[in-house]
Amino acid sequence: MTPDVIKVVAMPDYSIVAEFETGEVRHFDMRPFLDYPAFAALKEPGLFMRAHVEHGAVAWSEEIDLAPDTLYLRGLPG
C-alpha cells in the first residue's frame, strides 16, 4: 500500500516536493500533466502554488487532485 502524503510544497517550475508518512520525499514534475484537461487549470501559477494535502493526496481544489501512488511511484527520490 502506498503511504499517504503528509506535506507538499509547490515550486515555481511546476514541480512539487511531497513528503510521505514514511519520511520519504519525492520530487514530481507536473509539466507533462498540464496538457491533460483534468490538470489544465494548474497552468495558472496562482492556482498551482495553492497545492495542499487533503486526505493523504495532493489537492488544489475540490476538482483537482493527484493520488499519492502516482507521486510515490513516478516521483524522483530525494
Characterize the structure shown.
By secondary structure, the protein is of the alpha+beta class. It is built from two helices and seven strands, in the order βββαβββαβ. It has a single domain, classed as NE0471 N-terminal domain-like (2-Layer Sandwich), CATH 3.30.2020. The strands form two sheets. Strands 1-2-3-7 form a four-stranded antiparallel beta sheet, with helices on one face. The protein has a three-stranded antiparallel beta sheet with strand order 4-5-6. The relative contact order is 0.27.
CATH architecture: 2-Layer Sandwich
Residue share in β-strands: 25-35%
How do the strands of the widest beta sheet line up side by side?
1-2-3-7
Regions with little confidence, pLDDT below 50 for 5+ residues: none
Tell me the quaternary state: single chain
Helix and strand element order: EEEHEEEHE
For the largest beta-sheet, the strand count, sense and barrel status come to:
4 strands, antiparallel
* β-strand number: 7
**pLDDT averaged over residues:** 96
Helix/strand/pairing class, anyone? alpha+beta
CATH superfamily label: NE0471-like N-terminal domain
Tally of structural domains: 1
Shape: globular
